[in-house]
Design goal:
168 residues; 2 domains; six-stranded antiparallel β-sheet; 30% helix
Length: 168
């Protein structure tokens, strides 16, 4: 399924389709840099865009390309949007994006293992306090990781589970 996002640039009004390079015009900013882990990266920045349906919300478009040694695109380009006041320098922006994966994994861990949404709290203040505590608990768990012996939970076989049903 193709990308059906239609973007317009505020100053020109022309359509800009992410999956059609014929609709792109010269980027407002261009950076090429070498990362020790990811290799050669090429970043393009186009400023002052908006979605066709929401003309009041401005954004900047960033395309990140990962290239091989011959400067040939290895992967599909990554498209990012910046909505906000001050965008960091383009040469630093992509590093901030890489941090996102750590945050995403933390949210998954907090939901699944720390039962973030399990408590039935009655006020927004209680929910906010609980959400403030979760990063602190995670930090404490991370700090204690090296000094605590891993405790494995004993697995109960399915046959034994059926022999002792819940509530019985």
């Amino acid at each position: 399924m193709g990308c059906r996002v239609r973007l317009c640039q505020l100053r020109q009004g022309d359509k800009f389709k992410l999956n059609d390079s014929q609709t792109w015009w010269t980027a407002d900013q261009f950076v090429e840099l070498k990362d020790p882990k990811l290799g050669l990266l090429r970043l393009h920045l186009w400023r002052n865009f908006h979605f066709q349906q929401s003309a009041k919300i401005k954004m900047d478009l960033i395309q990140v390309q990962r290239l091989n040694e011959d400067a040939v695109n290895q992967f599909k380009p990554l498209w990012l949007a910046w909505v906000g006041m001050d965008m960091p320098e383009l040469s630093e922006f992509w590093r901030l994006y890489l941090r996102r994966f750590t945050v995403d994994h933390w949210y998954r861990f907090a939901l699944a293992s720390l039962h973030w949404t399990l408590p039935k709290l009655s006020t927004p203040e209680q929910c906010e306090s609980w959400s403030d505590l979760l990063p602190l608990m995670t930090w404490q768990l991370g700090k204690a990781r090296d000094i605590v012996r891993p405790a494995r939970r004993r697995r109960v076989s399915r046959r034994r589970r059926r022999a002792f049903p819940k509530g019985g």
